[in-house]
Write a structure and sequence with these properties.
2 copies of one chain form a homodimer. Chain A folds into 2 domains: 2-104 and 307-422, nicotinate phosphoribosyltransferase, CATH 3.20.140.10; 126-297, TIM Barrel. The radius of gyration of chain A is 26 Å and the shape is elongated. Chain A is built from 16 helices and 19 strands. In chain A, strand 10, helix 13 and strand 11 form a beta-alpha-beta unit. In chain A, helix 7 crosses helix 8, helix 10 (192-202) crosses helix 11 and helix 11 (216-230) packs parallel to helix 12 (245-258). Chain A has a 7-stranded antiparallel β-sheet with strand order 13-12-1-5-3-17-18. In chain A, strands 7-6-11-10-9-8 form a 6-stranded parallel β-sheet. In chain A, 52% of the residues are buried. The two termini of chain A are 27 Å apart. With 429 residues, chain A is of the alpha/beta class. Chain A has helices at 2-7, 35-44, 49-57, 62-68, 99-104, 106-130, 146-158, 167-173, 183-188, 192-202, 216-230, 245-258, 274-282, 294-297, 374-387, 407-422; strands at residues 13-20, 30-31, 76-79, 85-86, 91-98, 134-137, 163-164, 208-210, 237-240, 265-268, 289-292, 307-314, 317-318, 333-338, 341-346, 356-357, 360-364, 367-368, 404-405.
Chain lengths: 429, 429
């Protein structure tokens, strides 16, 4: 497609709008995430000689290859910054560039924003369920690839996870790495007590003993012996990874307290998600922190979002699709967030008094003009979370937030629709 | 953990076994996939100076850092080659190496084999549902990262997908790239007919016209005009991406045939998975090929597998875990496949006459000794598929295949279990 546009001299600017059409049933809101890698990608997007050789090898014809030579991204981008709470239909990102460039970026932009936003939104629900208890990302083992594990560690950190077991992600994004002990470590020693002693000696500042390799009750007792003997009561923890976590955590707390280890933390893990965590919290389980893995790492109940990248303007002309059930709204957009909620409007509308525009310029002429720390995204998420209606925060059956449409956007939709029908584009199927 | 093992001089060989504990409810079998990247990873696995610097920056202590210096993978690996049909409990891969090395590889091996196997297994079901019709991988836009898209293209090719829209994956793995036309292409032109003409002229050997941007009936008529005028009837196709695919494909077929375009193919896409495809095929929809995206690309109904990497032997001693509901079977293993099904046995058992061992040596002393083409994996899948009972092939409510355990493996489990209980490791919770 990109080659075809360029062969035909179609270099006019196009605006594409990337948004999520509808929310998965168990989501009351989304958390924008993934912009950072999109900006890196767009800044580096260029068709090089290697690419042309590869395309030739794939059998593309000379005219197509020639048309792509020299292509690089020269456009403008506006986007919702990371950590922001967003809703269905609100653009996460808009690209304005010569149409071939904007078209070529589609797959990567959709891929990155969809996945990171899906994970940040899932992790935010886990954060809500945990109600202030600690959270550690344990997902790396079963994410959909290594790159996915990095995205999960970063996205979960933005919504309040305290640490990750992914050492490479910790290094890359400046997160806290949290080492864990596996059942295999215990099994490699002649006895559980010996394994606990060895691990505690070698990890004195990060002693979390996994107590359920053989039997949790005996495991807790052995952990108490080691923690007491080495004087690690103030910093150590125990981890329970199976069985009835509510009952086992209560028993462990009782045993730890009876031994005077009132500061020793209890960490729970094993197939946890927001539903399981909410139940444990509701049951008053004395768990200090949760290790959350697979179900967050693949966003198990909604592993993708209904994201789209739609042409909304070409060569100054607003554009829309009429396809049954998938019609789009024409024109470059802005979202105005005010005390009475969000309104999707046109980009060139005046900002209504008392509202904040959600999309900000992040790239101009192919150069990024937006850089921020993970802490900034984290703070943005915290403050946005406070603005959400309580019903959108529910773990089960959350309510969607209604988003309005500005009169100008409504009027443009009506007029473009009429024009298309006038051109014979929309007889009923 | 790895550092702790090395600090304590625990260099004895350990065997870890990687397997899927239980199948997701809608899977009658799995397709082994992901070995290639595991072998590449293990061959390159070494702790370098950069890694040590990074760990120091993360706050690890000197003794830990020193213990990791010089570590590289020197072990042996046996594995089920790619494309093989496997079942719950059957090892996909076994690593035997000094315990620190084997432990360090856990996360990567689990990550890669779990995801690739999940996708190959999902794609295999789609392939079964399509019953010989063409399949094209359209998943890149919404996979969980770019690396994931490459894995999806490769895994789906092994189970019989004919092409991918992921040009980079096509280049990397030698697959057929299949360009597609988006709705935005149509919208960028003044009229649909003009867009079709331009696309057909620029892609004469790969003309697939997307007919539902405005209205499918009108779109098919305009496609017929262009295909006829340019004489592309033998090679061109039309694609329908929305609406009632069964009804629209029937209408399109009638219109194409009436215009003499009996060879022009109909491609359907839009939220397809094995269930939707099975329904379309059962309804007799005249669809020649399916473009399958998101639901395959994230394995939507089972985005992860219950995979584990368990220590089964250390320093010559068989090892098992007793943890409630998650007990493991000790000892290095082999799977014997014969006419009466699969039997999990011990690796050092004699191969029962008439059976084939599923695990083959793939690495020795840290060097890979197994390399094969994607075509070999593809052929292996085809022949394994023919051996499955018909009930395991069902799209809805597939039956699991029962896997036996050899008397020697049973006996070892009983004896290790007794020994652990004798050492006070397994009082009831």
């Amino acid at each position: 497609m990109a080659a075809s546009f360029r062969r035909r001299g179609m270099h006019a600017p196009a605006t594409f709008s990337l948004f999520v059409r509808a929310l998965p049933s168990e989501r009351g809101f989304l958390v924008a995430c993934g912009l950072e890698s999109c900006l890196e990608y767009l800044e580096g997007l260029a068709v090089g000689d290697d690419d042309l050789d590869a395309l030739t090898a794939l059998g593309l014809d000379d005219l197509t290859i020639e048309a792509l030579a020299g292509l690089r991204f020269t456009g403008d981008v506006s986007a919702v910054p990371e950590g922001r709470v967003v809703h269905a239909g609100e653009p996460l990102l808009e690209v304005t560039a010569p149409i071939a460039e904007a078209q070529l970026a589609e797959t990567y932009l959709l891929n990155q924003l969809t996945f990171a936003t899906a994970i940040a939104s899932k992790a935010a629900r886990i954060r809500l369920a945990a109600g202030g208890r600690g959270l550690v990302d344990f997902a790396f083992r079963r994410t959909q690839g290594v790159e996915a594990a990095m995205t999960v560690a970063r996205a979960s950190a933005i919504v309040g996870f305290a640490a990750t077991s992914d050492v490479e992600a910790a290094r890359r994004f400046g997160l806290r790495a949290s080492g864990t002990m596996a059942h295999s470590y215990v099994e490699a020693f002649d006895s559980e007590g010996e394994a606990f002693r060895a691990f505690a000696e070698d990890n004195p500042t990060n002693t979390v003993l996994l107590v359920d390799t053989y039997d949790a009750h005996t495991g807790v007792q052995r952990a108490i012996d080691v923690i007491t003997r080495l004087g690690l009561g103030q910093t150590a923890g125990i981890r329970i990874d199976s069985g009835d976590l509510a009952a086992l955590s209560r028993e462990a707390r009782r045993m730890l307290d009876a031994a005077g280890l009132t500061k020793t933390q209890i960490i729970a893990s094993g197939g946890l998600d927001e539903y399981a965590i909410a139940d444990l919290v509701a049951a008053g389980a004395p768990i200090d922190a949760f290790g959350v893995g697979t179900k967050m790492g693949v966003s198990e109940d909604a592993p993708s979002l209904e994201s789209v990248y739609k042409l909304v303007a070409y060569d100054g002309r607003p554009v829309m699709k009429l396809q049954t059930g998938k019609a789009t709204t024409p024109g470059p957009k802005q979202v105005f967030r005010g005390p009475s909620g969000d309104v999707i409007g046109l980009r060139d509308e005046a900002i209504p008094p008392g509202t904040e525009p959600l999309l900000i310029p992040v790239m101009e002429g192919g150069r990024r003009i937006h850089r921020e720390s993970l802490d900034t995204a984290r703070e943005r998420f915290e403050s946005d979370l406070n603005l959400l209606p309580e019903t959108a925060l529910h773990i089960r059956n959350p309510a969607r937030v209604t988003v309005g449409m500005s009169p100008a956007a409504e009027a443009l939709t009506t007029s473009v629709h009429k024009k298309l029908i006038g051109r014979g584009h929309a007889s009923e199927v």
